[in-house]
């Protein structure tokens, strides 16, 4: 008599705690389709003299905590991307003058993109990772800055640029995860989701 293998348990529901279309696209790129998309609505103001690395992880954990409480028994994924120039945290540019200041600061310099990722498993266990990518920009001319601002790609982007768009032409050097600069470090995120019980 043949022995039947035990039935596979259903894959837990994956909740994405982010409204970022870039993060959703990146997950789909590697064959992961979240269920509910439930963005966290939290205060993202950096603390006084808060450094970029702890800030990125704090934001990811805070977003996770806000959303995981609403989805017991699910896998919840939260993330935050921080562009840092030295010890300075650059804003998610909402106004053109903010984006211009970011581009002026990044012009001809090396900066870091810090990706904080936090995942809650169905049993409530929380795992986190912090991923750092180093990026260098060419020295930007006033005309290049003006043209990029006119494109509108900077809106809502950390550091005032989107590497997957027209700003790609500014990049002279990149070390680390490219997808982290886009919005989610895929290798590390997939490892966290696998540890939480998500089967591809």
Helical content stands at 25-40%
What general outline do the C-alpha atoms trace? elongated
CATH topology annotation: Maf protein
Distance between the termini: 32 Å
As residue ranges, the low-confidence spans are: none
Number of strands: 6
Total of domains? 1
Supply Rg: 19 Å
**How many separate helices?**
6
Largest sheet: 6 strands, mixed
**Top-tier CATH class:** Alpha Beta
CATH architecture: Alpha-Beta Complex
Quote the beta fraction: 15-25%
Order of helices and strands: EHHEEHEEHEHH
Structural class: alpha+beta
What order do the helices and strands come in, and which of them pair?
Elements: E1 14-16, H1 21-29, H2 52-68, E2 75-85, E3 88-89, H3 96-106, E4 110-120, E5 126-137, H4 142-151, E6 171-175, H5 178-182, H6 186-195
Parallel strand pairs: 1-2
Antiparallel strand pairs: 2-3, 2-4, 4-5, 5-6
Describe this structure in words.
With 200 residues, the chain is an alpha+beta fold. The chain has one domain: Alpha-Beta Complex (Maf protein). The protein is 31% helix and 22% strand. It has 6 helices and 6 strands; from the N terminus they run E-H-H-E-E-H-E-E-H-E-H-H. The protein is elongated. The two termini are 32 Å apart.
Observed structural traits:
six-stranded mixed sheet; 6 strands; elongated; 6 helices; 200 residues; Maf protein; alpha+beta
